[in-house]
Amino acid sequence: MSRHPSARLSRHAGHAPGELVHIGETKTAEPRILLIEFSPEHYQETTFASLAASRTHQPGDGTLWLNVYGLQDVAMMAEIGRRFQLHPLVMEDVLNTHQRPKIEDYGDYIFIVTHVFDYHPASRTLSEEQISMVLGRNVVLTFQERPAGRFQPLRERLKNGIGQGRRLGAGYLAYSLLDVIVDQYFVTLDQLGDTVEELDTRLLAGQADGGTLARIHTLKMALLSLRRALWPLREAVMTLQHGDSALLDDETRVYLRDVYDHLVHLLETVDMQRDLIAGMVDLYISTQSNQMNRQMRFLTVIATLFMPLTLISSIYGMNFEYMPELHWKWGYFIVLGVMAAIAAGMGYLFKRWRWW
Amino acid sequence: MSRHPSARLSRHAGHAPGELVHIGETKTAEPRILLIEFSPEHYQETTFASLAASRTHQPGDGTLWLNVYGLQDVAMMAEIGRRFQLHPLVMEDVLNTHQRPKIEDYGDYIFIVTHVFDYHPASRTLSEEQISMVLGRNVVLTFQERPAGRFQPLRERLKNGIGQGRRLGAGYLAYSLLDVIVDQYFVTLDQLGDTVEELDTRLLAGQADGGTLARIHTLKMALLSLRRALWPLREAVMTLQHGDSALLDDETRVYLRDVYDHLVHLLETVDMQRDLIAGMVDLYISTQSNQMNRQMRFLTVIATLFMPLTLISSIYGMNFEYMPELHWKWGYFIVLGVMAAIAAGMGYLFKRWRWW
Amino acid sequence: MSRHPSARLSRHAGHAPGELVHIGETKTAEPRILLIEFSPEHYQETTFASLAASRTHQPGDGTLWLNVYGLQDVAMMAEIGRRFQLHPLVMEDVLNTHQRPKIEDYGDYIFIVTHVFDYHPASRTLSEEQISMVLGRNVVLTFQERPAGRFQPLRERLKNGIGQGRRLGAGYLAYSLLDVIVDQYFVTLDQLGDTVEELDTRLLAGQADGGTLARIHTLKMALLSLRRALWPLREAVMTLQHGDSALLDDETRVYLRDVYDHLVHLLETVDMQRDLIAGMVDLYISTQSNQMNRQMRFLTVIATLFMPLTLISSIYGMNFEYMPELHWKWGYFIVLGVMAAIAAGMGYLFKRWRWW
Amino acid sequence: MSRHPSARLSRHAGHAPGELVHIGETKTAEPRILLIEFSPEHYQETTFASLAASRTHQPGDGTLWLNVYGLQDVAMMAEIGRRFQLHPLVMEDVLNTHQRPKIEDYGDYIFIVTHVFDYHPASRTLSEEQISMVLGRNVVLTFQERPAGRFQPLRERLKNGIGQGRRLGAGYLAYSLLDVIVDQYFVTLDQLGDTVEELDTRLLAGQADGGTLARIHTLKMALLSLRRALWPLREAVMTLQHGDSALLDDETRVYLRDVYDHLVHLLETVDMQRDLIAGMVDLYISTQSNQMNRQMRFLTVIATLFMPLTLISSIYGMNFEYMPELHWKWGYFIVLGVMAAIAAGMGYLFKRWRWW
Amino acid sequence: MSRHPSARLSRHAGHAPGELVHIGETKTAEPRILLIEFSPEHYQETTFASLAASRTHQPGDGTLWLNVYGLQDVAMMAEIGRRFQLHPLVMEDVLNTHQRPKIEDYGDYIFIVTHVFDYHPASRTLSEEQISMVLGRNVVLTFQERPAGRFQPLRERLKNGIGQGRRLGAGYLAYSLLDVIVDQYFVTLDQLGDTVEELDTRLLAGQADGGTLARIHTLKMALLSLRRALWPLREAVMTLQHGDSALLDDETRVYLRDVYDHLVHLLETVDMQRDLIAGMVDLYISTQSNQMNRQMRFLTVIATLFMPLTLISSIYGMNFEYMPELHWKWGYFIVLGVMAAIAAGMGYLFKRWRWW
Questions:
Q1: Which residue among A27, C146, E84, E129 has its CA within the 20 to 30 Å range from the CA of E115?
Q2: Do D272 and E326 touch (CB under 8 A)?
Q3: Å between D317 CA and nearest CA of chain E
Q4: For the region Disordered, what residue ranges are annotated (chains A, B, C, D, E) (predicted)?
Q5: Quick one: how far is CA A78 from the chain centroid?
Q6: Chain C residues closer than 8 Å to B286 by CB
Q7: What DSSP character marks residue D95?
Q8: Strand partners for C23
Q9: What is the CATH number of domain E9-287?
């Protein structure tokens, strides 16, 4: 995650609408395509090293799931767009990885853009990846910036025919992908929560140093990034769930409501974390300032204590000819005694006023 | 209540949708099932130690109320789900005790998730428990994490045929359960209110110590937890009340409006408490800082008072050969007198400026 | 008004829904019932000391207005509820004086709960009273905690046939009661406004003492109480005005719009007052802190002024054998002159920098 | 503009609804009525000193525009109300000049209440005036507190037949009046903007004195007054524009949309000004506090500089019998040199640390 | 961008509605008109130096795109308005360059007002330009304050027949213009983002000087200006996209949704930037204040360190006859040693307390 959110937003400016330009980092060396075909009865995986290789493949009757890893090959992406008859804007959005999360119904297919975050506790940074999906009749396309193995358990379940995945087809597959993506947020949020807790412990133990506030600032920005990605996704899922697209049957819609609930829960947790951090910071600043003030008062009290003592000794340092006390035998000791008494008296007073 | 809200949110990530996993602490040793059957004419309670024992039980014609205490026996929960033909997601939510409060209409039954809070004044902590309900035709299921006796008065009223409970059946029973749950919030809020009042008294009496702000922070988080649990419940009850489910008759809907009113009242009270706390803290910080400033000024005034006196005595400590005053007979006493006059004058001035 | 809003909210918890319990202080010694019957042609008042006395009373054809003062006689209230066929929840709400303001349409009658505030400038406290109303066909019931004479002018106008009160019947009577209640808010707000103005004058005149901020806090809580009572009432009146209840004719609805306008005006005035107070406090704190800082700088400037003077006199107090200046004839006076010059120079500098 | 917004809100309390009472200052000596009659072909002005004089006047066929200046003659107002068959609440609102801006559709006529503000740069005060309008079929009534000449250009245009005013009749006239009123806000806001700019310049030039924050507070309250008057007017104009009143034809509605745009623009400008002021104040306080802190540090640095010097001279002022340095020939000058070196060294250090 | 937003808002006040007045700076010397005619088959550009020259031009069958640069020639603008039968308010808005962004459907044509911002990094200022458009049947009018070459790439694409521009006609052209305008915001926001990043780096490196906060204030105002221009545009585009105007076909509406997404993205980025700036400022102020407090404590610690030393030396400067220590041989050195020990002890203590 770049700290500065507008990073190169303008790279697309000057291009015509629908013109395909890959905007974003290239995160994998070689684009790769993985095709999965399944029906309630069978399951088959095919990997294509290049698009040329795939041209001769003849798909069967079941549901098609096309995984694309790596977005930098614009020509390949254009061909995919043409083959599945996607709107030029769809492919433009797939390639521009600074897209907002959204779900758009194009009638024949539904286009879904989501973001996934990975937290790296060592460097305390978030990395963000855009995952786009197209849900058509009997077909699901997924576009990822690199192979991250996120959907591997899903493929395992499909392969082994566990659950209702094979029976319910493309709509349920799209839901399952969303579910995996949303579950990843729980993981990320848990890790962020651990960092929050660690910082909290440190603050309360008074071990905060100069970098602590800066780290809290980074944490706040990370939570804000999650919020920005979750909020539009929540809206989009709600629209999808209440929509009337023929691509989703009622059975799948019930599951979408579950995804929606998870998103609401995530948003609330993010907000709770943000409140927690805000409270932590306030408490820390207030404690810090209080402590500093007490220290200054302590120092000032000490200074005040010495004032009368210094005055007295200064008085008896005067060179007047006639100062009777100077000639008293015990004058010196009496003065020392008086000083001690004054110091003790003031000390007692300040103690009673709780100023030390 | 864990202080860190995301605590182990991610435990479900990686499981398939609808796969049953118990998420949350195990709060009772042995799951227990209590079956209540009632009609306007009769009332009968049966306790089953295990699910096996219940399989032979033949229910009668009336309304069925199945109480489940303890959620850790996943196999038992799965069987209950199957027997009452509940959607897999319902049982998943029952077992995951970090669910948001919600009310979902599945057509044949309504699924209700609520949270209940108990305040422990001694440790100043809130404990949270999830209570799920399923309202079907002539049947109510309740799932609690442990037997807490919350619904005992309700069972007594049913047993003794007091009120309209027996006559109005399952819908009214579900309302009564909600009513008990909402009433518990009033109790919790009263106890929190007592803590707020105690803190307020302490702050105004100037007895706040280092832990006070931390305690206020905890209190704020507790109120926030209540708010988070009440807000979605309010929405859900409103949706239920205005919905068209055949499981609730008009007579019961009027009572639901009453529950809704209570929830609004609770939310307002929570917000009022939060305003009160915010005001208390502001007042405290402002008073504190004001007092600290006055003390610093007082000390600085004292220091300033000694400045000219020390200068004078220092001047007459100089060793110049020709300093006529030194040879005056009353020089010493005159200087002492001048010092006293200066001190008195400054003291008077500071008094008039209200600087002490 | 209790300072702690949740005061004994939980007293109702544990009771069955619809069970009548009087919650709140008992504010009058003896419950009293005043029955008014009027038609365009006649007007008649009857006072009943007890409910028993009223049982024999045979009402005429016109509009009935039943005033109940004092709510503690639960049996009497229950009988009234039964006689006018009110829902158990209505009577429960009448008796629970911590109800939110609301207007509920029960079909045959409309139930209205409002709160009235009296400000006592001497003790600077608000007292709150709940006034409930039931508007039925040709009948209006009002329930007050004590006889306060609020509706006396209304009764006078009815008695003397002034205005359209007699002609327009129960709906217009309910409106008139609401109008009186809303007008009372204007009075209360004016009195609070006077207190605000008095505090403002005091703050600007620099006469704020320790209690001022606490008093402002109380004032803020009072305005918040008004806001809490006005906001739901506004919503309720709007719903009533736009509703389709047959109990209100179009002529009365126009008047309700006027009440609605007044409520909006009141809410805006409350918000304006709150802004005013917030601004006052900010201004005060800023002025206060600025003044304190200036005083500290003034004191520090004085201390700084004495530093070089004390150093010089200290230098000439050293006991070196060879210090030529000590033996100059005018050495002492030259040194005094140099000191004066330094003091004057620094004083001029600080003056130019506007540090005194 | 009174600084205290609730000023005598309660004066109407105790009066019956619809009872006419003039609430507000009397701003003109003698109420005056100006009647304008116009049709596409002709235009005629008649001034009546009293209502009696107007009774004999026989209006023609065209559009009637009745201007009333001065509201204190309650009897006259009542007669106007009766003659044009206005609802009692309309006349009550006309007379109560603390009304919120609003537009009410009474079927046969539309009642419009607006406020106009004049800014007096000399005294830096806003004066507020209520202008009420009634738009009926072929008739427009305007009620102003005093003759201010606001509508004079409009009358000129009507008289000289410029624009479409004569052709489009009463609806367009009402729009034109609203347009003039809204344009006056632009003038007021420009003048306030000049004051904001002047204050800004002063703050940045460091010429802020004690009164500046108080003046900013007044400015904020003035902007808030404008906002309070504009906000409901915006809502009202939108309702009117989208309404279906037969009194406004489609041609006029297009113009109303323009008024609506102006109101939105005004509101945004007010909010921008408020943000600007808030930013100014924050910047000023931050600069102020920073400067004060630097000054205190500067003074403390000076004090610290003198500490070691005073100690050294104090040491050589001790009266020990055996202090070898005292007998060195150049002891005195060496000590002076050491002092100078210490001062220079510390001065250099503080300089490097940028503490002066 | 004027820093003071209301700059001469009132210039239009006093003019009749629909009266044409040019409000705003004159930004180009000579108004110029560029007419483009195109159909799927051909493309033709004609430049007119004056309106007179254009009168003889006979347009062909295809789509007409009229570019007007420079708005000061009111007579010319009036003629354009008449020739295309535009509502007087449209031309008034075109000429008043302080218009809010908006899209108005006049039935036969749609009127669009937008603002474009250019950021000048050197002077760190934003310049704002209003671009108005009218989309009619087969005709698009654009009004710019000066020729800026923004639409040149668009004209190139049209000229060379690239993309679908020629085929899709006027609606798609209007969309393309909006797209160019919105893309310009990305460029501006990127440049602002660079400034934000530069400031951030400077703040973290501790190189902030007096002007930094003022510069941040300017930046905040610039982001606010963007927000103010984007917000209503977003609303307007949404209304247009969901509207039913016959001037836009379904194919173009899909593209409008893309513009809408960009606007939402821009608004989120602006808000993110504002959060970032707010966080930066808070962090800076907190760091600054913390550092200042540490410096003051350091200085006060030094002062406190010298207190006891000065007292001791002062004591042995007293002139008592009988002070045994003065006569000790090593008295002087013992006292120096004691002083050193005290200083070292206090230094160690302050070190352990981390006060240096």
A1: E84
A2: no
A3: 5
A4: 1-22
A5: 33
A6: 213, 285
A7: H
A8: C96
A9: 3.30.460.20
ipTM metric: 0.77
Nearest chain B residue to A158, by CA: B16
Evaluate whether the domain defined by A9-286 bears CATH number 3.30.460.20: yes
Q: Which CATH class is domain E294-352?
A: mainly alpha
Q: Which residue of D has its CA nearest to E88?
A: D255
Could you tell me how many CB contacts below 8 A there are between chain D and chain E?
147
C296-352 topology per CATH? Methane Monooxygenase Hydroxylase; Chain G, domain 1 (1.20.58)
Task: Measure the CA–CA gap between D153 and D170, rounded to whole angstroms.
Answer: 17
Tens-place pLDDT, residues A186-206: 999 988 988 888 888 887 777
Please classify residue B315 by burial: count the beta carbons closer than 10 Å to its beta carbon, then call 0-12 exposed, 13-18 middle and 19+ buried.
buried
Nearest beta carbon to residue A258 from set B7, B17, B329: B17
More confident residue, A167 or D135: D135
Instruction: Please name every residue paired with C44 in a beta bridge, in sequence order, or none if there are none.
Output: C37
Which residues from D are below 8 Å from C323, CB to CB?
A: 332
- D290's CB contacts (< 8 A; 6+ apart) are E288
Chains touching C (at least 3 CB pairs under 8 A) are B, D
* Model confidence band, residue A60 (pLDDT cutoffs 50, 70, 90): confident
Fold match flag (C9-286 vs C296-352) = no
Query: Is the Cβ pair A176, B17 closer than 8 Å?
Result: yes
Q: What are the C-alpha distances in Å from E299 to residues C301, E75, E312, E344?
A: 16, 73, 21, 17
SS3 A180: helix
C99 CA: distance to closest CA in chain B (Å): 8
CB contact under 8 A, D296 and E299: no
For the domain with range A293-352, which CATH number is right: 3.40.718.10, 1.20.58.340, 1.20.120.1730, 2.60.40.1120? 1.20.58.340
Secondary structure (DSSP) of D142-198: EEESS---TTHHHHHHHHTT-TTHHHHHHHHHHHHHHHHHHHHHHHHHHHHHHHHHH
Give dist(CA B4, CA A201) in Å, integer.
12
Return the exposure string of D228-251: e unless at least 16 CB atoms fall within 10 Å of the residue's CB, then b.
bbbbbbbebbbebbeeeeebbeee
pLDDT at residue E57 is higher than 80: no
Å between B100 CA and nearest CA of chain A: 7
Is the Cβ–Cβ distance between A4 and E197 less than 8 Å?
yes
Give the chain A residue whose CA is nearest to the CA of B7: A190
Q: Best of D177, D223, D298, D307 to disrupt the E interface by mutation (most E CBs within 10 Å)?
A: D307
**Parallel, antiparallel or unpaired: strands B43-48 and B32-38:** antiparallel
Residue listed under structure tokens 């194919």: E251
Using DSSP's 3-state secondary structure scheme, residue B100 falls into coil
| Residues in chain B within 8 Å Cβ distance of A190 | 6, 8-10
Residue of E5, E12, E102 lying closest to D269 (CB–CB): E5
Phi, psi of A72 (to 5 degrees): -75, -15
| For chain D, domain boundaries | 9-287, 296-352
pLDDT at residue C96 above 60?
yes
Contact A317 B318 (CB under 8 A): no
Q: Which residue of B has its CA nearest to C306?
A: B307
Q: How far is A261 from chain E (nearest CA, A)?
A: 24
pLDDT of D122-168, one tens digit each?
888 889 999 999 999 999 999 998 888 889 989 999 998 887 888 88
Q: Contact B297/C292, CB-based, under 8 Å?
A: yes
What is the pLDDT confidence band of residue D231, given thresholds at 50, 70 and 90?
A: very high
- Spatial separation of the C-alpha atoms in residues C227 and C266, rounded to whole Å: 9
- What's the rounded mean pLDDT across residues A107-111? 93
Mean pLDDT of A169-177: 93
The residue of C1, C4, C6 whose CB has the most chain B CBs within 10 angstroms, and thus the best one to mutate to test that interface, is C6
